[in-house]
Amino acid sequence: MNPLYAPTSFYRLQFHAGFTFAHAQRIVPYLRDLGVSHVYTSPILAARPGSTHGYDIVDHQSLNPELGGRKGFDALSAALREAGMGLVMDIVPNHMGIGRSDNQWWLDVLEWGRSSRFIHFFDIEWFPQTQGIHDQVLLPVLGDLYGAVLERGELRLRFDAQVGSFSVWYYEHRFPVCPSAYHRILTPCLEYAGEETAAHPEIRAALTESKRLRTTPRSGTRRKALRTRGETFKSTLARLSGDFPELRRALKYAEHLFSPENPDGRGLERLHKLLERQHYRPAFWRVAGHEINYRRFFQINDLAGLRVEEPEVFAAAHGLIRDLVAAGQVHGLRIDHIDGLYDPAGYLDRLQKLLKPQAASLGFVTGRFPVYVEKILEEHETLRGRWPVHGTTGYDALSEINAVQIDSGGLAELRAMYEAREGAGSADAHAEGVRAKRQIMDQELASELEVLATETTRLLKRDPATRDFSRGEIRQALREIVSRFPVYRTYVGSRGPSVEDVRDLDWALGLARRARAVSHPRLFDVLEALLKASWQKRTNGRPRADVLRLARKFQQFTGPAMAKGMEDTTFYRVLPLISMNEVGMGPNRRISTAGDFHQQMQRRVADWPKAMVTTATHDTKRSEDVRSRIAVLSELPKAWAERVERWQTLNRRARRESALGPLPSSRDEYLFYQTLVGVWPPEGLGPDLPGAATLSALQDRLQAYMVKAAREAKISTSWLNPDEEYEQALTDFTAQVLDSGPTAAPFLRDVQEFVAKLAVPGACNALTQTILRLTMPGAPDNYQGTELWDDSLVDPDNRRPLNFTDRWDGLREFQATEAEENQIDYVASLKRTWHDGRIKQYVQWRLLTLRRAHPELFLNGNYVPLEVSGTRANNILAFARIHRTHGRQAVIAALPRLVADLCPPDGGFPTGEAWSATTIALNTALPKAGKEGHWRNRFTGRPLSPTDGVLTAAELFADLPWAVLVFTRTGG
User: Which residues are paired to 159 by β-bridges?
Assistant: First the structure.
């Protein structure tokens, strides 16, 4: 079978100027030997220079030159082909990087407004409700109020002689001047040049032509004609500036004439009047939340939404991608932010159609080119079954794994403890989420809500039955519905709402009605019909197409409100157990039993057997290993409560008093302690405290993290309105309690002593998580570098440079010892030195190579829960993967969970007799040991022989508290 058809595993690489195609090419042999089948790239199309993530694409039609361009990519592709590996590419159809001077589509829109060739590429409201923005795009890029920036002379008019164009520059931002306003520049420039130059026939003719361009065309035909004349005029101006040095000097002098330095004192007046007549309005960045009139990626001003639903936009944004697939260089696509698109299902259908000929040449099933969508599913939600994709990028799997590694009883105690600290209801993420989403819509996304309210009002004013609903009430009703929305978005389309859409809309509408936020309850009935697009072709002045458009625009808005309100606000406010506050999960998610987990896996096999499975990404709030250790707090709630109380007493000296109470807040201090125990270095658990250099590095990282977390919470400080006093108190607190001197030593020793109790159970969780990711249904995504222990926090902390030399050295050692007879002793040595992370890398290597050898087993095999009995039945998760048509291939996975009370006091792992009186019954569908073959532990090589179809846990976990058994048929 072609391995490109069924990727068995992915290795995510974050490309930037410091890690290029050439760097990736050098580690291809390492990834091949590790067992990875596909490199999985961050976005690699041309992004903004200096981008560390690649999501701010400025040119969809070229590869990023900072990464090595097409030549570098071709070399990487050849190396992957030689290694028998494929490549999955992250693409960004929803938005582009704008501002500055590098996005030619956007610059054309700024220059020509609605006459631009790319006017339909971006989602712009040209006639918004906001006063003072008519037929203009608001550009919130200024660092201060417009008037102050203008007075300081930071806006500079410049002439580009090569192309004959004028632009106003604000540092790195370019605002092109429309040729229809060039006469305002040429007139004073020619006065400066003198009569002789101005009187030359060609120059005089040019000035006359510039004045003829002053029209405001009303029709598309006339706008196109104006643009053609304007482009011709710029070419003429470029030629004239080359032919007449005096003219060129005069045009270059425009910067002085339109500046505060001009002696006549009218420079700023000229510049202001010139800017007022452009198709944009430069503005202070803080006004964006309330006045911006283009769709953004969330609230990020320099990422503008693309109208990829337009055929021309789709073709322009996907031409290079199609070519790379056709060349056999790209074998799968990850679709970023699928929920941001106007019509996700239509987009996916169009994408599969585009790639059909190319995909067929690679051997893929028609309409099923490997596509993975970045989609966050709520607890009650499933991915839409008709979408032509392999599945999600794996946040749902992350949630399923997390939820089975937390003690539900202990979590209830932690929630009660948190409410005792922070007040009644402070652990209720649903209620906090409603408040947070309202705050987001009132501040960061206020302009998007205004646009939605304006469009809804226009639609309702057409009908006598609904024209009396005021715009203010419509806005309030929409705000209430969105704040109660239970999912990121619905997918109402031309066929109307699905059962799932109706369920989620009814939930939000029901809660919004009960809030009694508007004077006339019938408004919600009207909005229900609109949002479900349930009217026929035309009813009372509302065309069906307009209703559907509004429903889809609403759907594009609920996702950002949910993401900003929950992930980026509530997750930093509701903190009983922060390992739950993860993308795809949440503070109120239900905790799973082993039985729940088995049911989830069986649904996964039935519905999405090839979906990605991830436990760490570039977007996760903390690394998989940090999460795993923090989860142990749910098993030790009383001990944790005692430690927190003690630490608050020890660190009283580091807090400062203010009129509003102690700084930092108790909420942020509690977040700090959980984070600290999560990232405390595993090698720093001996009798001595970590050295000064280690503590200093930890201090720097946690200071940056705590400020970011406090800003995200938006309680004591925020990104929009930073509170310098609070942030200074927070960083000072972190510095003092992590100081390497004697004052902080009692606290640090107590932390170290407590972390020693968490470390081994946390490592057990981490390796259980790793093994689940590599054996459960789906294709595992391995985030760069996480084959060793990873103590990363949220970005940019999780994008620190990696040392692949150490990782390669470890892999070579594994390969060298593979042929040795006594693998058990080698694994025992890895277990003794577990803190260096090699045991995690070893586990990944053994399972990734197993997956590559048996792809059908893991991608298409059944998932069979195994019955566990005895005193420790609740602490074992056991299942089998079976593929009946491929030689009855089978593996068994038996993994520990909730083992804090099983770990010996000396800090060792729970093995052997810790699991006495516990058994695992093998399913009858599994092959029987004996004449057919035998079971062997994939990690140690130890053979196991079930007795009457039963394995004893003590024997299974004799060497390690994790076991993956592989059935080898006799003679196989």
Answer: 166
Residues 591-628 have pLDDT tens digits of: 999 999 999 999 999 999 999 999 999 999 999 999 99
SS3 487: coil
Residue pair 534/497 in contact (Cβ under 8 Å)? The answer is: yes
DSSP 574: -
Q: Which of 494, 504, 560 is nearest to 528 (CA)?
A: 504
Q: In angstroms, rounded to a whole number, what is the distance separating the alpha carbons of residues 490 and 650?
A: 50
Name the amino acid, one letter, at 516.
R
Residues near 657 by beta carbon (within 8 Å), at least 6 away in sequence:
663
How buried is 76 (Cβ within 10 angstroms: 0-12 exposed, 13-18 middle, 19+ buried)? buried
User: pLDDT of 561-586, one tens digit each?
Assistant: 999 999 999 999 999 999 999 999 99
What would the two tokens of residue 710 be? 């406090």
Find out whether 566 and 433 touch, Cβ atoms under 8 Å. yes
Q: Which of 451, 453, 464, 506 is nearest to 484 (CA)?
A: 506
Q: What are phi and psi of 53, to 5 degrees?
A: -130, -25
Kindly state the tokens that stand for 770.
């790793």
d(Cα 828, Cα 815) in Å, to the nearest integer?
16
Residue 588, C-beta contacts closer than 8 angstroms, at least 6 positions apart? 428, 429, 430, 574
DSSP string, 781-830: EEETTTTS----BSTTGGG----HHHHHHHHHHHHHHTTSS-HHHHHHHH
Q: Is residue 616 helix, strand or coil?
A: coil
As beta bridge partners, residue 230 has: none
Q: Which of 285-289, 448-452, 675-679, 702-706 has the lowest mean pLDDT?
A: 285-289
CB 877 within 8 A of CB 594: yes
Cβ neighbors of 839 (< 8 A, separation 6 or more) are: 767, 827, 830, 831, 833
The domains located in the chain, with CATH, are 10-94+306-393 (3.20.20.80), 104-297 (3.30.1590.10), 429-573 (no CATH), 760-969 (no CATH)
On average, the pLDDT of the chain sits at 94
Token pair for 32: 């091949």
Phi-psi region of 99 (alpha: psi -120 to 50; beta: other; left: phi over 0): left
Does an H or E element contain 962, and which? none
Strand 779-783 relative to strand 612-614: parallel, antiparallel, unpaired? parallel
Distance CA 528, CA 534 (A): 9
Long-range CB contact pairs, 833-838, < 8 A, 24+: 834/682, 834/760, 834/763, 834/909, 835/682, 835/683, 835/685, 835/759, 835/789, 836/683, 836/788, 836/789, 837/787, 837/788, 837/789, 838/788, 838/810, 838/813
* Residue of 77, 75, 73, 56 whose CA lies nearest to 65: 73
Which residues lie below 8 Å from residue 148, measured CB to CB, with a gap of 6+?
none
Greater confidence, 410 or 520? 410
Residue 936 reports pLDDT greater than 90: yes
| Backbone angles phi and psi of 560, in degrees to 5 | -60, -40
Structure tokens at 57: 């694409």
Q: How many CB atoms lie within 10 A of CB 322?
A: 16
Q: Report residue 146 as tokens.
A: 């417009």
Do residues 893 and 594 lie in contact, with contact meaning Cβ atoms separated by under 8 Å? no
Residue 537 pLDDT grade (very low, low, confident, very high; cuts 50, 70, 90): very low
Q: Span 158-176, mean pLDDT?
A: 96
Residue 242: other Cβ atoms inside 10 A: 13
Give the chain's radius of gyration (CA, Å).
31
Given a cut of 90, whether residue 216 has pLDDT beyond it is: no
Distance CA 389, CA 355 (A): 13
Cα separation of 54 and 102, whole Å? 14
